[in-house]
Amino acid sequence: MFDERPGDRELLLSSAEAQVRKLGRVPQLVTADAGFYSQAQERAVQERGIQIAIPQAWDEKGWRSARWFKKAQRWRIGCEGRISVLKRRHGFSRCRYRGLDGMKLWAGLGVLANNLIKIGNTLAVARA
């Protein structure tokens, strides 16, 4: 979380670096929508050995039809769908708490609630 919202184009490299800090390994692939693309960010991410699947990056190279690219974009679209469910089901469109700590708590509770619902549905199907 950020104290002030940076532009998407500034987040690609810092997101990959945060992944390395948290998990102790470099991700194999990053994917995002076209708003995250910049040539400088693309180069910096690729210099760290990370493959990049952002539509604008591959339009000019003609790799949009590559299987790995399509798979990465389907995964990203699935994440977008999950965010949409969180907004509709758990009121993620508006935080009810104040400040950065409140936003972190709101996000955590929403994700927890969603995960409990998913676990419950999975168990119900498994028992049927």
Q: Notable features of this structure?
A:
single chain; 128 residues; mainly alpha; 2 domains; 5 helices; 2 strands; 5% strand; globular
Shape: globular
- Low-pLDDT residue intervals, each spanning 5 or more residues: none
SSE series: HEHEHHH
- Oligomeric form: single chain
Sheet with the most strands, sense and barrel status? 2 strands, parallel
Gyration radius, to the nearest Å? 17 Å
Overall pLDDT: 83
Ends: how far apart? 41 Å
As a percent range, the share of helical residues equals: 55-70%
Domains (count): 2
Describe the structure.
This protein has 5 helices and 2 strands. It has 128 residues and is mostly helical. It folds into 2 domains: 1-93, no CATH class; 95-128, no CATH class. It has a two-stranded parallel ribbon. The longest helix has 29 residues, at 99-127. The radius of gyration is 17 Å and the shape is globular.
In brief:
Helix content is 62%, strand content 5%.
Topology:
Blueprint: H1 11-23, E1 29-31, H2 39-47, E2 51-53, H3 55-59, H4 67-90, H5 99-127
Parallel strand pairs: 1-2
